[in-house]
Amino acid sequence: MASIWNSDLYFVIFLLLGILLPVSSLWVLGPRLRPHKPSQAKQSSYESGVEPFGDAHVRYHARYYLFALLFVVFDVETVFFYPWAVASHQLGVFGLIEAVLFILFLAVGLIYAWRKKVLEWN
């Protein structure tokens, strides 16, 4: 017969200690250990060595987001070629046909995006 002391209680104790000890030590010791010497230079914003100007909230054109999304989609799709390349010898003609169909689907998506002028920066 398994005792509660052997499994569940130890798990709860270690879980609580694993959370409470780091949090409490950072809360108690953190302000005493870290340096705290505020100055005007430390309080100012820093942007690549240049004083920032203008508003920080800039609206970007939606086309940039669409371009980034297309990049991510086509970049992730290339990851699917690695398993096919490893197993291409075992898959034979069926694997080749599937890979060609996959490339055709990607090409159709690229042609659609090109015709909708999504890939233009203007």
From TrEMBL:
Annotated transmembrane regions? 12-30, 64-85, 91-114
Q: Which GO terms describe its cellular component?
A: NADH dehydrogenase complex; plasma membrane
UniProt subcellular location = Cell membrane; Membrane
Q: Which InterPro entries match?
A: NAD(P)H_OxRDtase_bac/plastid, NADH_UbQ/plastoQ_OxRdtase_su3, NDAH_ubi_oxred_su3_sf
Query: GO MF terms on file?
Result: NADH dehydrogenase (quinone) (non-electrogenic) activity; NADH dehydrogenase (ubiquinone) activity; quinone binding
Key word Transmembrane present in the record?
Answer: yes
Membrane topology type, per the record? Answer: Multi-pass membrane protein
Query: Which key words tag this protein in UniProt?
Result: Cell membrane, Membrane, NAD, Quinone, Translocase, Transmembrane, Transmembrane helix, Transport
User: What Enzyme Commission number(s) apply to this enzyme?
Assistant: 7.1.1.-
A Pfam family hit: Oxidored_q4
Catalysis: reaction(s)? a quinone + NADH + 5 H(+)(in) = a quinol + NAD(+) + 4 H(+)(out)
Show the Gene3D superfamilies listed in the entry: NADH:ubiquinone/plastoquinone oxidoreductase, chain 3 (1.20.58.1610)
Q: Report quaternary structure and partners.
A: NDH-1 is composed of 14 different subunits. Subunits NuoA, H, J, K, L, M, N constitute the membrane sector of the complex.
Similarity comment text for this entry: Belongs to the complex I subunit 3 family.
Its biological purpose is as follows: NDH-1 shuttles electrons from NADH, via FMN and iron-sulfur (Fe-S) centers, to quinones in the respiratory chain. The immediate electron acceptor for the enzyme in this species is believed to be a menaquinone. Couples the redox reaction to proton translocation (for every two electrons transferred, four hydrogen ions are translocated across the cytoplasmic membrane), and thus conserves the redox energy in a proton gradient.
The protein here is known as: NADH-quinone oxidoreductase subunit A
**Which species does the entry assign this protein to?**
Alicyclobacillus tolerans
Its gene?
A: nuoA
